[in-house]
Amino acid sequence: MTSARQAAPTLAEALREAAAEIEDTLDAVLPPEEGPEAKLAAAMRYATLGGGKRLRGFLVLEGAKPFGVARASALRVAAAVEMLHAYSLVHDDLPAMDNDALRRGKPTTHLAFDEATAILAGDALQAHAFAVLADEDTHSDSGVRVELLRRLAIASGPRGMCGGQMLDMLAEQGTEEPTEASIGRLQLLKTGKLIEFAAEAGAILGKAAAQQRHALCAYGRDLGAAFQISDDVLDATATAEETGKATGKDAAAGKATLVGLLGLDRARAQAERLAAQAREHLDSFGERADLLRMLADYTIARRS
Quick one: pLDDT at residue 6? Predict the structure, then answer.
């Protein structure tokens, strides 16, 4: 007889299923393309739908499972995280930031529409993400909703994603020699904080004990660091066809990365150490966290 453990979905299957569910939820919660502001809605939907691995949303869904959270509730939080992430990509791709022409295998939003519309689409996606979290459909307990709002605001604000982008821009100016510590802080804020929130969000929804929230938070922090190093390795070694975006730009732009500081082999070894640490944080969850452990391995082995 096939055991329940053997019958469990592979990570690839689970990612595909979650991505499809998150896509459907995004389609439902994003504004329709109608009325005088239809162009804004079109840009929001263009930037968010039809691509991406939905790793952050997947983290929300898997982090919610051990606590018996309703799937519809977790999906709304997953959609909010993906909208927040999409906003950050739209703004990062702008000429004033990274000036990228390709994202998820298609023209970036400011090229598909125009720069002003892209800025507004990013602003609207950020606001809409918080509106979704604040809605009673996400959770009946206002205290849970407030905590989700608070944690996402911290993850995306001056001590999170936006602060990390500022550090990234300052590093490109080359006024100070980058160190492993300074690069680690940059990447923790720019990439890691949102991944950390995504990993913790399910525990917030499930009103989990502080120890369980801390374990998922620590998992997300180490996973986020490994993910960013993996991204830097891909930028140096993968093709645009593999990643769906331009590669080789980090070195050309003088970006501060661990690959540039340590070299490919040492950077890969650091990512492997971080992925191993991430897995260890899940020990108390047993088999319920198997897919999250697999995700840590996938993060450093992926080619896109």
Answer: 46
